[in-house]
Design a protein that fits this description.
- It is found in: Cell membrane.
- Helix 7 packs across helix 10.
- The chain is α+β, with helices and mostly antiparallel strands and 838 residues long.
- The strands form 14 sheets. Strands 2, 4, 5, 8, 9 and 10 form a six-stranded mixed β-sheet that branches. Strands 12, 15, 16, 19, 20 and 21 form a six-stranded mixed β-sheet that branches. Strands 40, 41, 42, 43, 45 and 47 form a six-stranded antiparallel β-sheet that branches.
- It starts with 8 loop residues before the first strand and ends with a helix.
């Protein structure tokens, strides 16, 4: 057979193999024609008895086909220490010669536990590229890598946006929100399967502003106001921790609406010629000025008629009847005069029975002095508003004495008193924690006076009620104490001025601040925003307080909603310390309360009872609405003199605790222990800071621990006759001058402009005496400074503006010269000032 004379041809050569654990592997060779086949491993022949041979004759050719197998154990491979891997090949013989197969390597398979590089979590903006790196553990054979997302296999074949071919890395070309998840690198070979640590991928969306809305209408009907437009951070809205939109969500712009001008009558025309009916006529027109912008029409008649013959042009037959009417009228007039004389006599006798002459006193003091009326007859009572004693702890009790002279503006005249309207009262919101602050004083102006006797006003700081109501709304927070004046149902003829302290940082337009009032069912209703203009209430916002003009008794408070993360409120910080009873430990307590006057009164009371001393004057910290917490830490403690427990040097208040003031006041404590009683010096610092925000340092640098200086925390305020106010006579002359209309409109508008109270003029236009209300609001603004110089300067400027009207100039010049300087008003009562300038 010619085929038997060929060299052996391998039909199957040995393959590379891996030994898994301790299981041996089989190597196979098959060749034709082959007389013998032997394995050669690592250059040495394998013993014949280690071979397993099979032989058969191929049908059709008759050639012999031989197949040989050997086993290779793990021990054989481990015992081989050659320069290369363990290898084996086959050698086949035929009649013509020999043939060699390829070398097959035998290796021990393994896969180490630790990844050479694990994927790391990342935050990626939407449409950004995500690259997760993975280098699998070392292994034989090399491990194959797969990716899992949330325990499900990631396939690049199903999603063309995903590529897993690049060096085991996972690449997502354009991140989508759906690509957020937990990713795991999975490495495996024939030995084992390994999982990497999970990498969390967050695809976030930065906020984008929507388009601006149209400008709103001007919020006033009269004068200078504000219009605004808004936008929202919804295009798109921030998601998955994306940044909030930068910039303002509200834009405001000033606007001006023409004020209503009430009509005024022009001069009467000349009388017409006497008619045949013995009458003459004259007319006038409502043109001085004409009513504009919704102003009122002129009151009265435009046509006037008169008998032009002195009532002599009458029929002769009626003369006798007219004579009878004439005598009857004279008799009726005589009777009326007699009745008036008797009434006046009885009235004077009744007035003389009072122990105090009301008119003389009120005329000299300007209506600010309280009176004790003593009745000469048993059973007669004071003229005052009756008050339920049970309301003392929940309402401001106001006793009203209202008498003034009716002598046409003169200050003299005994026995000419009558009930008069109450002028605006000045009430300050001096709060003290949860305890009511009682004060005494006399508030009011002009002929009427609003008397606040001792313990007669109780302004509550019942914060928890409103805080609980605001907690349901979620965005508004309390910015002021709750201020209550009453009793309910009290009716005054003019507004009451309330000065309410607040803790908001109003230097920028980051707040939406509202005035709220408590209803009868103890819920809270919106009265107005501080920038809104209304005819029922007036708000004037200063840096640390808000001046209100309100007409309804009740409970009021300021709340605010932060429009941006830059909105902030002021916090007052203070640190107290004292030696503990064992004389080894020293305790330092740090308090944080909203920055409003007298907010530390409760804290000071508690500290005095436990012997605490104020370490340093309280300081102010601006706390932003950026969701970051407040940290309090103690630093620079002398190491060899004092010790502090581990992990207590830094304490933290959550953002919601501070921002919403859920705990009042916030307090944290540090306890220091001295190594020896001889260590009597302690110098340290206390840092109070908002994370990524402002910081304040409270220092303790005293030679002897138990003794620290303590600032005076008592409440000081001028009330009663010492309270700052415009002398009565000057007030009356100002009101008489500016409440009078002229051709240019109401002069009180110019007064408001020069006193910088020139917004919401529509409110003053609805008052009986706009000038009186403006002056009351100005007094409320200047209670702390008590400076009348600025009022005098404003009147001088108005005099220059009105220089064309000589009468006004003379009047204003005389008024401004009679106003006392600020130095002359110090420590002088209203009675003294008014008596000197009446």
């Amino acid at each position: 057979d010619p085929m038997s004379g060929t060299l052996p041809h391998f039909l199957q050569e040995p393959d590379d193999a891996y030994i898994v654990k301790s299981n041996p592997i089989k190597l196979r060779c098959r060749a034709r024609p082959a007389l013998q086949i032997f394995f050669k491993c690592n250059g040495e022949w394998v013993h014949q008895n280690q071979h397993t041979s099979l032989e058969h004759t191929e049908l059709g050719t008759g050639l012999k086909i031989r197949e040989v197998m050997i086993n290779v154990s793990r021990q054989q491979v481990e015992d081989f220490h050659g320069p290369e891997d363990y290898w084996c090949l086959c050698v086949a013989w035929s009649h013509l010669g020999t043939s060699k197969s390829r070398k097959a390597t035998v290796r021990i398979a393994y896969l180490r536990k630790n990844f050479e590089q694990e994927p790391q979590g990342m935050e990626v903006p939407i449409n950004g590229m995500i690259v997760l790196h993975c280098r699998p553990p070392e292994g034989v054979p090399a491990a194959e890598v797969e990716w899992l997302k949330n325990e499900e296999l990631v396939s690049s074949l199903e999603d063309l946006n995903i590529d897993t071919r690049a060096d085991h890395n996972l690449i997502i070309n354009e991140a989508r929100l759906s690509d957020s998840g937990n990713y795991t690198c999975l490495a495996s070979n024939i030995v084992a399967r390994r999982r990497s640590a999970t990498a969390t991928v967050i695809v976030f969306v930065n906020g984008g502003w929507s388009s601006w809305t149209d400008w709103s209408e001007c919020n006033v009907r009269c004068g200078r106001g504000v219009q605004k437009r808004t936008r929202t951070c919804t295009n798109p809205a921030p998601l998955n921790g994306g940044a909030f939109c930068e910039g303002m969500s509200v834009q405001k712009s000033t606007c001006t609406s023409p004020c209503p001008v009430d009509g005024g009558w022009a001069e009467w025309t000349m009388w017409s010629v006497c008619s045949s009916e013995c009458e003459r006529q004259r007319t006038r027109e409502c043109t001085d000025p004409e009513p504009k912008h919704g102003g009122r029409l002129c009151d009265g008649a435009a046509l006037d008629t008169d008998n032009c013959t002195g009532d002599l042009c009458i029929q002769a037959d009626m003369e006798s009847s007219n004579d009878v009417a004439l005598y009857s009228g004279l008799a009726a007039g005589l009777v009326t005069v007699v009745v008036l004389i008797i009434a006046v006599t009885l009235y004077r006798r009744n007035q003389s029975e009072y122990g105090v002459d009301v008119i003389d006193s009120s005329a000299l003091t300007g209506g600010f002095q309280s009176f004790s009326f003593k009745s000469a007859r048993q059973g007669e009572q004071k003229q005052q508003v009756q008050i339920d004693p049970s309301a003392l702890m929940t309402h401001a009790i106001i006793t009203v004495f209202a008498r003034q002279n009716c002598g046409g503006g003169t200050l003299g005249g005994r026995g000419k008193s009558q009930l008069a309207p109450i002028q605006p009262a000045l009430v300050s919101s001096m709060m003290t924690g949860k305890r009511p602050l009682r004060t005494s004083g006399v508030f009011g102006h002009g002929g009427g006076r609003l008397v606040v006797p001792n313990a007669g006003v109780c302004l509550m700081h019942a914060v928890e009620r409103l805080k609980n109501a605001l907690s349901d709304e979620g965005q508004e927070i309390l910015l002021s104490p709750e201020v209550t004046y009453g009793p309910p149902g009290l009716t005054l003829s003019c507004p009451v001025a309330l000065t309410v302290a607040h803790c908001a940082d109003v230097s920028s337009e980051d707040w939406n601040i509202k005035l709220k009032r408590q209803t009868q069912d103890n819920s809270w209703e919106d009265v107005m925003t501080v920038e809104e203009e209304s005819t029922s209430c007036y708000c004037l916002l200063d840096t640390q307080c808000c001046h209100l003009l309100v007409e309804r008794p009740g409970c009021y408070a300021l709340v605010g909603e932060a429009l941006t993360q830059a909105a902030g409120k002021r916090l007052r910080l203070a640190a107290f310390g004292n030696m503990e009873p064992n004389f080894l430990n020293y305790s330092i307590r740090v308090y944080c309360v909203d920055d409003m006057p007298h907010a530390f009164q409760e804290v000071v009371s508690v500290e005095r009872s436990r012997g605490g001393r104020l370490l340093e004057e309280p300081k102010t910290l601006l706390f932003r609405a950026n969701s970051f917490n407040l940290q309090v830490s103690i630093q620079d403690i002398p190491q060899f003199l004092w010790s502090i427990k581990p992990f207590t040097t830094c304490q933290e208040f959550s953002f919601s605790q501070v921002w919403c003031s859920s705990q009042s006041p916030l307090q944290c404590a540090f306890s220091l222990e001295r190594y020896s009683p001889a260590a009597n010096q302690l110098s340290c610092k206390i840092s109070v800071r908002q994370v990524k925000g402002h910081e304040q340092i409270l220092q303790n640098e005293k030679d002897t621990v138990p003794f620290f200086t303590q600032s005076d925390c008592t409440i000081t305020s001028q009330t009663g006759s010492r309270a700052f106010k415009i002398p009565l006579s000057i007030r009356q002359r100002i009101c008489a001058t500016f409440d009078t209309a002229n051709a240019k409109g109401k002069d009180w508008q110019l007064l408001a402009q020069k006193l910088h109270i020139d917004r919401n003029l529509g409110y003053f236009a609805c008052q009986t005496s706009p000038s009186a209300v403006i002056l009351s609001l100005w007094e409320a603004q200047h209670q702390e400074r008590g400076d009348l110089d600025s009022l005098a300067s404003a009147l001088e400027e108005i005099g220059k503006v009105q220089s064309k009207h000589s009468t006004s100039v003379d009047t204003l010049d005389r008024i401004s010269k009679t106003i006392p300087s600020s130095n002359s008003t110090m420590n002088r009562s209203s009675e003294e000032l008014d008596a000197n300038h009446t």
